[in-house]
Amino acid sequence: MQYYSTNKSAPSVDFKTATIAGQAPDKGLYFPEHIPVFPKKIIENIEGYSNTDIAFEAIKPFVGNCIPDDVLHNIVKETINFSIPLMPINNDIQSLELFHGPTLAFKDVGARFMSRCLSFFLKNEQQKVTVLVATSGDTGGAVANGFFNVPNIDVVILYPSGKVSKVQEQQLTTLGGNIHALEIQGNFDDCQQLVKKAFTDADVTSKLFLTSANSINVARWLPQQFYYFFGYKQWTDKNNAPVIAVPSGNFGNICAGLIAQASGLPITHFIAACNANNTVPNYMANHTYKPQKAIATISNAMDVGDPSNFIRIRTLLAHADKNIHTILSSESISDNITKATIKNVFEQFHYLLDPHTAVGYAALSNYLQQHPSKKGMVISTAHPVKFYDVVTPIIGQPIHLPSIVQSQMNAIKKSTLLPNEYDALKNCLLQLI
Ligand SMILES: *Cc1c(COP(=O)(O)O)cnc(C)c1O
C-alpha cells in the first residue's frame, strides 16, 4: 500500500515511511492510494473468527510488506488484549465499550498499535525518534502508556493547563522516564499550534527526528477500524446493520469507521456527534468549512475547532463518489443536553455514560426518532470514571474507582508548566538532545 499526501505536493510513501514521518513534508495528511476490499467470506461468518484474526485481516493491506505477517499478527494481538463488549442500553441503542484498556479510553487501541509498529521499525536503526503530541485529554495518557519505556523513543506531550480532568492529567504526567509532560497555559488549539510550529522549525528538526502520535499518524488512525468490525461481530440483527454514532473531535475515529465501511463492513449510517464545537455540523448544513476557536465543554476531548482529520473524510467521500449526506450526518449537542442525557439514561436504564459518549447517545437517539425502523450503536469512547467530577454531581452519587485508576491517582505528577509561547517549547525540546 502506498500513501499520498492530501496536499498532493509530496511523493507517495509506504506504511513505514508514513508512520515514522507522521505528517507529509508538504503538511498534508497521508491517505491510502486505494481502499482494500475486506474478505466477504469473513464478513458473512464474522462470529466464527477471533478478534485478532479479524483485526489482522483489516490492517494487513494497509501495512503491506513493511511488517512480516507473524510480527504484525503479534502486534495486533497485543494491541487488543482487553475486552471490547457491545452492551445493550435499551431496545434501540447498544454501547460499544472501548474503555477497558489501560487508560480507559478508545485511544489505547491506536496508541498501542502505533508504538509497537514504530518500535519494530526503529529496532535496527541507530536513529532516536521524538514523538511530539498535543492532547485535549485522552491522547496524552494513551500515548504515554503505549510508548512508556519503548527504546529509542522520547515522548513529549503538550496539554492545556486546567482543561483536562484529574484522571487524564495523572495518566499523562506520572510515568516519567522517556515521557515528558508539558503543561501549557492555553487551550488545546494553542497546544496544537505549538506542535505544528515545532514540526516546521528547521532549527529543531535538524537536531531531533520528530514524529506525531495524534490521529494524523496512519499507524494510530487506521487500527481504529478494528472495533467497528468487533461491534458488527456482536451485532445480532445482521439484516438491519447498525447506525453508528461516534463522539467526534478531531474526526480520526469516525474516519476510521468510514474506511471500514468503504472496505465492505455493513454499517447503515454514521453520525458524527459533536459538542458545542460545531464546525462540522455547520459544514454539513451549509457546505462551507469555517474553522473556529475551540470552546471548552464537559466533553473536553472533543473541544476541537478545526478537526485535522476532516480532510480525510472529504478525500474518502470524493473517492467513493457518494453524496456525503447518505453516509454521514452530524449534530451538535450542548452541555445541558449532555448532562440531561447522562441523568436520564442512568435513571431509566441504569447505564452510566461518560460526557463524550452521552453526546453520541443524544445525537443517536435524535436520529432514531426520525428513522424508527433503524437501530443504533454508540461508540463509547471513555469510562465515566475519567470524568468523575462532571458525572457524579449529575447522578448524585459516587462511582466506584477501578483499581487501575486508584493507583494512577496516587502517583506523583511530574510536569513542566510553560507559557503559550513557542520559544519555551523549543527550549524544552532542545534539552532532549
Ligand atoms: C479523543 C476522544 C474523542 C474524539 O475522537 P476523535 O478521533 O478526535 O474524533 C471522543 N471521546 C473521547 C473520550 C476521546 O478521548
UniProtKB/TrEMBL annotation:
Keyword Lyase: yes
Residue stretches making up the Threonine synthase N-terminal domain: 2-79
Keywords of this entry: Amino-acid biosynthesis, Lyase, Pyridoxal phosphate, Threonine biosynthesis
Pathway: Amino-acid biosynthesis; L-threonine biosynthesis; L-threonine from L-aspartate: step 5/5
Leading EC class: lyase
Family: Belongs to the threonine synthase family.
Gene: thrC
Keyword Ribonucleoprotein carried by entry: no
Top-level taxonomic group: Bacteria
Cofactors (names): pyridoxal 5'-phosphate
EC number: 4.2.3.1
Domain Tryptophan synthase beta chain-like PALP: 97-377
Molecular function GO terms recorded: threonine synthase activity
NCBIfam families assigned to the protein according to its UniProt record, in alphabetical order: thrC
InterPro entries: Ser/Thr_deHydtase_PyrdxlP-BS (IPR000634), Thr_synth_N (IPR029144), Thr_synth_N_sf (IPR037158), Thr_synthase-like (IPR004450), Threonine_Synthase (IPR051166), TrpB-like_PALP (IPR001926), TrpB-like_PALP_sf (IPR036052)
Name of the featured protein: Threonine synthase
Recorded catalytic activity of this chain's protein: O-phospho-L-homoserine + H2O = L-threonine + phosphate
Organism: Ferruginibacter yonginensis
PROSITE patterns: DEHYDRATASE_SER_THR (PS00165)
